[in-house]
Amino acid sequence: MDPAPIIIRGFGLPSGFEWVIIGIIALLIFGPKLPSIMRSIGGSMKEFKKGMDEGPAKPVEPPPATPPAAAGGTSQPANSSPQPKA
Q: N or C, which terminus of the chain has less Cβ within 10 Å?
């Protein structure tokens, strides 16, 4: 019998007591920052719910298309006067 499956089977997801230890370590590391983290998470949730209640925003309509320039080979805009040659 191959010993590898037995060794791999020993490593799994944490169980009850292991989660307690992980939680204590997390509190030691993030303890002082927890109030500000929770406040920012709460604010994000409020904004998300507010956005969901408002519904989709009105779509922005594109501006009306301008007609293409006249086919005359000129590079000047139609509303400007020709430049005098010196």
A: C
